[in-house]
Amino acid sequence: MRFVVLASGTGSNARALIEACQGGHCAAEPVALVSDRTDAGALTMAEDLGLPTAVLPLGRREDRQRWDQDLTEHLHGYQPDLIVLAGFMRLLGPATVKRFSGRMINVHPSLLPAFAGLRAPEQALRARVAISGCTVHVVDQGMDTGPILAQAALVVDPRQSASELHERIKGLERTLLPRVVHAIALGGLDLTAPLQGQNPVSSLVQRSIHSL
Ligand code: GRF
Questions:
Q1: Which residues fall within 8 angstroms of residue 148, CB to CB, at 6 or more apart?
Q2: Which pick of 22, 28, 151, 155 has the fewest CB atoms within 10 Å?
Q3: Active-site annotation holds for 108
């Protein structure tokens, strides 16, 4: 199963995923890392791991539709079975989401549907929740609204800052994301209809967690 990673930031999730594949712990093949930012640490990280990279910066706001088209065509060129958003800080355009419908997943630092959008750990602290965590979900047209595939939780320490909570959550993300991708690769699941009755990806994740 070929996949492309989209990342805008440091890329610690992308690194964990790529290294899991290269180390034989995730049965999927990373084919490229694409960023919207020339200064993304994820780019150097991917190059260090021998992965092709590309940058498609979004220029002026009025170029937005053109950027969506370019990104869609560029991603299509890799012939990916899956696209993984790992800290990609742009909402994808409707045409991009439609083109890769059921083949795109995202990792988010909260227990969705709580705290979608930006600064999720800060939102969680403000709401004084006792438990938070991360979610891997299918990407749909909304912001962090697609069907949930898997979650991992932790107990919130209210004395910690938002960035400390985020770092702890990212520790969970780096474990969960490779396992979800592994489960998808093993199961060949159709992510367009993942949530009929029992969540098949979650049960596969359980099995793959035990087998790792
Ligand atoms: C992660 O918390 C991810 O859930 C969110 O952005 C962050 C990316 O971190 N969407 P990194 O760049 O992978 O370190």
A1: 112, 135, 136, 137, 195, 199
A2: 155
A3: yes
